[in-house]
Write a structure and sequence with these properties.
The chain is mostly beta strands and 221 residues long. The chain has one helix spanning 2-22, and strands at residues 28-29, 37-38, 43-46, 49-50, 57-61, 68-70, 75-78, 84-93, 101-111, 114-125, 128-137, 143-153, 158-168, 175-182, 186-198, 203-210, 215-217. The chain is built from one helix and 17 strands.
């Protein structure tokens, strides 16, 4: 009986000492910042903690970028849909009794991976509608890019104004694509569409522009 009690005391002392050793280091989130992310591109960012008593449980306070989730094991993942700055506060809880917890704020930026802009907005010149768009690639990946511009008249008929397919290199900015076409008299709304494929990642990005109002061609070809 005395031996069993003695062994129990020794075991308890060992376990208590182990628990104290496990929790002797303060709980810390290791990452100091989040990397920038590209809108429309899949992301997976694993956060890490040390100290306290593993395993850890994670939570987030505040709004994540649209299209993203944060898991209980500390992974920020998903495909952000819109560019812009965001801030979030991450909490991590250890398995101590009682549990310890710390918070850390992160700020990051979702960049527009594919940018499509009017360089010269569509305009009517006699029997023609002409203009130009410009495209930019802010990622580190090459784009297989297709751009097409159409004018849709008042009865829904579409006429191509311009088309181009090109390899858009990483970091390319303001690559110009002009367009022009002769059209019959009518009222037209112009749409510009850019579709970029990243073959290495199996990702497709899309951007679209539309004239805010109708354009009127009054002269015949």
């Amino acid at each position: 009986m005395v031996i069993n009690i003695t062994l129990g005391l020794i075991l308890c002392a060992s376990l208590c000492g182990l628990a104290r050793a496990q929790s002797s280091e303060p709980l810390v989130i290791l990452e100091s910042s989040l990397p920038p992310m590209d809108a429309g591109v899949d992301q997976r960012i694993q956060l890490h903690a040390t100290g306290g008593v593993p395993p850890y449980r994670w939570a987030v306070i505040g709004d994540l970028p649209e299209g993203m989730i944060f898991t209980a094991d500390g992974v920020l993942m998903g495909r952000p849909t819109k560019p812009g700055a965001f801030a979030m506060t991450v909490s991590v809880f250890d398995s101590g009794r009682p549990a310890h917890a710390i918070n850390k704020e992160f700020r990051s930026l979702v960049t527009a991976a594919l940018v499509l802009e009017w360089l010269r907005p569509p305009a009517v010149h006699g029997t023609q509608i002409d203009g130009a768009v410009q495209v930019s690639n802010s990622t580190q990946d090459k784009f297989d890019l297709t751009v097409f511009i159409v004018a849709v008249n008042q009865i829904g008929r579409a006429t191509a104004l311009g088309y181009q397919r090109l390899d858009l290199r990483p970091g390319s900015t303001n690559v110009q694509i002009p367009f022009t076409e002769t059209l019959p008299p009518g009222t037209y709304v112009v749409h510009a569409d850019a579709i970029a494929e990243i073959p290495a990642k199996g990702v497709i990005l899309r951007q679209r522009l539309q004239t805010p109002g109708a354009l009127h061609v009054t002269q015949g070809p």
